[in-house]
Design a protein that fits this description.
Blueprint (H helix, E strand, L loop, with lengths): L1 H8 L3 H21 L9 H35 L4 H4 L5 H26 L1 H11 L14 H18 L3 H19 L6 H7 L6 H7 L17 H6 L20 H4 L2 H6 L13
Helix pairs in contact: 1-8, 2-8, 3-7, 5-6, 5-7, 5-8
Length: 276
């Protein structure tokens, strides 16, 4: 564990960039060779839009990173946050507890609130408009949503009291998990189901990308599936029944045009349908 802590305490930015780019490249190759769904689309044009949003997310997080770093250091200096109030524990248990709590506040809670608060949904909607879910979809976030997510991440760091090495570790795991669960691949059903008892599996997350309620409002987890199961937001749908997108924006001119995607948060709100 000490080696992991030492590495993520000083992880170079170049390494983080290689993990991001390497993950996309790896899953891109796998889904190209063994696609779960054979889409009829221009894969490069689609990727271009999603990579644009990936780059804007990187820029937003880079510009605001000093806030995250200072918050993490403040919690350590002032012995603040849940981790600092718990009894001393084994380093592995400490790390797992911290990652679970960061995932709860910085990802699960953020995701849930984005779906429940209409103003925030306008920004998160861009992620759901994608009708061709693949590994590049994982980072398809409007710049406004990147700011919203950053606020929740910072809140998570503050309340959890996580040191910066844990934040970097969590972000690295989060990036890889996101690329994996969005990739256009399918695990054997039994393996996927077993995995979903602890971690978010591809089938589990793809249910969240089904185009209609109530499935859209379920399976909010990022890395760990336990929060969806604990709070009753877990749902299941056979993979053969999945239809990607969101019912309010199913036309290509709405979900596959960069200018329109950037403008969606400022357009008239459209109420989704409930298929339940």
């Amino acid at each position: 564990m000490n080696e992991i802590i030492d590495y993520f305490s000083t992880i170079p930015s170049a390494h983080r960039a290689m993990i991001l780019a390497g993950g996309i490249a790896l899953f891109w190759l796998i889904e190209s060779a063994l696609p779960f769904v054979k889409f009829s689309y221009n894969k490069w044009q689609h990727a271009g839009i999603n990579i644009f949003f990936t780059l804007t997310t990187i820029v937003v997080n880079f510009c605001l990173a000093f806030i995250l770093i200072r918050t993490a250091q403040w919690t350590v200096d002032h012995n603040f946050g849940l981790l600092n109030w718990l009894p001393e524990m084994n380093p592995w248990l400490y790390a797992i507890t911290g990652l679970l709590l960061l995932d709860l506040i910085g990802a699960y809670l953020a995701h849930l609130v984005e779906h429940k608060v209409k103003f925030l949904w306008r920004f998160h909607l861009i992620h759901h408009t994608d009708t061709w879910i693949d590994t590049t979809t994982g980072n398809r976030h409007h710049p406004g949503e990147s700011v919203i997510r950053f606020v929740f991440t910072t809140l998570g760091v503050l309340l959890v009291g996580s040191p910066m090495w844990m934040v970097f570790l969590y972000q690295t795991l989060s990036v890889v998990a996101t690329q994996f669960t969005h990739a256009n691949i399918a695990l054997p059903k039994r393996i996927d189901k077993i995995m979903s008892f602890v971690l978010v599996s591809p089938d589990m997350h793809k249910v969240h990308h089904h185009y209609k309620l109530p499935y859209t409002d379920s399976n909010y987890g990022n890395i760990f599936s336990v929060w969806d199961r604990l709070f009753g937001t877990f749902s299941y749908l056979e993979r053969e029944q999945l239809v990607y997108g969101v019912d309010t924006h199913m036309q290509p001119k709405e979900h596959n045009d960069l200018k329109n995607l950037l403008a969606i948060p400022f357009q008239k709100y459209r109420s989704p349908e409930d298929s339940a």
